[in-house]
């Protein structure tokens, strides 16, 4: 499993192979079962980060009317940052749940600081990874707000087609900002066009 991390790290760092291996060896890997919560909305947040080696994690919240709203899905080679540093002592705004049996690297800000002291280049690598991740999320959000539901679904098919078979349709619909019935109509319409 750590081979996935090492391949990913190679793209972002000038750490030697030995240093990369040492970093990977220090990071704890945890296995989670489908349905395991990493964090529940309303709990006090601990600043943690995860890197998905295998599996799928859904980020969602429950709105005032009791409706679940899916915000994001994290899959292989994606980082999840759970941070509430700006609002310390505030309850978590989101829940994070494993949609499949998952294998995640688990980090904390304390362990990160220790590793940054040992491997100064690691901080640059993590910053690059986060910049790319934030850029992708901003691009995805810009496309989302400027497109129709059908265009959103087409973008999902193009950019993250594996989600179609990995998550329930009602959660996918929530993620796309439509009802499950509307998503069914979109799928039906698109299947006729092909």
From TrEMBL:
Pfam families: cNMP_binding
Leader sequence segment: none
Domain Cyclic nucleotide-binding: 11-43
PROSITE patterns: CNMP_BINDING_3
Keyword field: Activator
Protein name, entry field: Crp/Fnr family transcriptional regulator
Organism of provenance: Ectobacillus ponti
């Amino acid at each position: 499993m750590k081979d996935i991390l090492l391949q990913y790290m190679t793209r972002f760092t000038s750490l030697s192979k030995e240093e990369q291996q040492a970093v990977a060896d220090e990071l704890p890997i945890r296995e989670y079962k489908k349905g395991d919560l990493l964090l529940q909305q309303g709990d006090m947040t601990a600043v943690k980060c995860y890197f998905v080696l295998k599996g799928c994690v859904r980020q969602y919240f429950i709105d005032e009317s009791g409706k679940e709203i899916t915000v994001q899905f994290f899959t292989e080679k994606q980082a999840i940052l759970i941070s509430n540093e700006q609002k310390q002592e505030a309850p978590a705004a989101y829940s994070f749940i494993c949609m499949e049996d998952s294998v995640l690297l688990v980090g904390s800000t304390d362990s990160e600081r220790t590793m940054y002291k040992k491997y100064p280049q690691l901080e640059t690598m993590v910053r690059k990874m986060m910049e790319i991740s934030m850029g992708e999320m901003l691009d995805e959000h810009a496309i989302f707000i400027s497109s129709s539901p059908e265009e959103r679904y087409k973008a999902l098919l193009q950019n993250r087609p594996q989600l179609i078979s990995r998550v329930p349709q009602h959660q996918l619909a929530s993620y796309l900002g439509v009802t499950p019935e509307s998503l069914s109509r979109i799928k039906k319409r698109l299947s006729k066009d092909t």
